[in-house]
Every structure is written in C-alpha cells, then in structure tokens.
Amino acid sequence: MENNQTADSEETKSCEYDPNVNQDELIMAQEKQIAEEIKANIAMVGELDDLSSLEREYSNDPVYFSKVATLLPKFSNVRRTRPDGNCFLRGFIFAYLEYCIYHREELTRFKQYLEASKEELFEMGFPKFTTEDFNDMFMEVVTDLEGSGSIDRVEAIINDAGTSDYLVVYLRLLISAHLQKNAEFFSFFIEGGRTVGEFCKQEVEPMYRECDHLHIVALTAALGVGVRVMYLDRGEGSSVVSHDFPEDKDPVIHLLYRPGHYDILYKA
C-alpha cells in the first residue's frame, strides 16, 4: 500500500506545473510526438472500406449513428485520410486523379491546366525555383498516369510522402493564387482584419493548415472541378447536409466532412 502511495505521489509531482520548464516547448514537443505517432500508424490515404464501418464507429452515438444511416443508400465505401491538416487536399487530389484515370479527357484537360498555371504563378510573384519544382512533380505524376493509370498507381503516388507533399503544396499555391486574384470578393469573408494576402500566408500556403470553406471555394473554382461535401456533424436535422462546390457544377468528387476532418466517399 505504501509503495502504491509513493508511486501515486511521484506521478502527481510529475504532472504539476514546473516554473523551470518552458511550457510552450513542452506543448510543442507533445504535439510533435502526436504528429509522429499519426504518421507512423495512419496512411495518407487508406484502403477502400465499407461504409458500414462508420455505423460501427458511432454505434454508441445516437446522433451520428442516425445520420450515418441516411448516407448508406447513397454511398457504399469510404477511404480514410490521415488527420494531419492536409486531409482535404490529400482526399481531393486522390479522388480527382482516380476520376481522371477513368476519364482520360479530364486528365488531358488537367495537364493543360497545370502547364499554364506555372507561368501564372510566376507572374503573381511566387518564387520561381520552388514553384517550378512543385509543378514539375505534378506534371510527372499526370504524365505517369497517362501511361500507367490505375488505382494501385494512384495509391502508391499519394502514399509516397515526398511526392504527395509536393502535390499538396502546389494545390495550396493554386488556392492562394485564386484568392489573391479575386481579393476584392474574398476580402469580405476573412476575419481578424487581415488582408487576403496575409490570410494566404498564414492559413493557405503553409503545410498542415486545415482547409475551410474559402479554400474549397477557391480550389474548385480554379480547377473547374465539382466537389460535393457531405457534412456529418451535430447540426440540426436528422440527415447529413450536402453542399456543392461550385454550386453550378456536377460533382465528380464526394467527400465526407466531420468536424476538422475530410474522408473520401464513393457513390453506391
């Protein structure tokens, strides 16, 4: 009994605030450890999973469980993405490349868009050396898929850290460029007294920054790609609410949103 009390006492002491320890550094170290554990245990984009797995996940949550039930007639499968702040962009590019390998005309259109986008980014002042590097990687991926396009190849590309991160960075640059080109419009939606340029530098261009409504509006408008997001949350109503981006375009990509995270959905 005395040994247990001693152990409990030591544990309590270790959890107490220590003025000699830099708390910011401690928090950063903990966040880094969590991030490393996520990287080690969760694929950037996982394997195709039956949507019923969501029912099992929320079997003890009546609100989410009932809303998941409304998804089942419309969707059959889900691919889970790594929750690292890049989940929307990783899910988007995986689903879009997957769509492109079955719709070759779209792959050709996307390649042409990428070729033209580099010069536009240069003209807007993005650094030439790094921008060209990211663009070259994207062009290599698209050219590769033109010749050997398959789901297995898309999985390999998106789950290769070096390649995948380059694609995500380039999408971030495209979002930033679109927001800045249309700054007069988007400035009304940015909080905190920041300019569009400041918002892009702080919330769009850095890796691991979560995407919100503005990111999605900008990316889908810039690429001309329709996305439908299904919102699974605790909002009012008994079913999952959907939103299309852009509103006038048929969606070719379906994503599941849960607070702070996006996964890929597949229609039934």
Automatic annotation (TrEMBL):
Signal peptide: none annotated. Gene3D superfamilies: Peptidase C65 Otubain, subdomain 1, Peptidase C65 Otubain, subdomain 2. It is an enzyme of class 3 (hydrolase). It catalyses: Thiol-dependent hydrolysis of ester, thioester, amide, peptide and isopeptide bonds formed by the C-terminal Gly of ubiquitin (a 76-residue protein attached to proteins as an intracellular targeting signal). GO terms for cellular component: nucleus. Residues 76-268 form the OTU domain. The keyword Protease applies. The record marks Y231, D233, Y257, Y262 as: Interacts with free ubiquitin. GO terms for biological process: protein K48-linked deubiquitination; proteolysis. CDD domains: OTUB1. Its EC number is 3.4.19.12. The keyword ATP-binding does not apply. InterPro entries: OTU_dom, Otubain, Papain-like_cys_pep_sf, Peptidase_C65_otubain, Peptidase_C65_otubain_sub1, Peptidase_C65_otubain_sub2. One of its GO terms (molecular function) is ubiquitin binding. Belongs to the peptidase C65 family. PANTHER family: UBIQUITIN THIOESTERASE OTUBAIN-LIKE, UBIQUITIN THIOLESTERASE PROTEIN OTUB. This is Ubiquitin thioesterase. It comes from Halocaridina rubra.
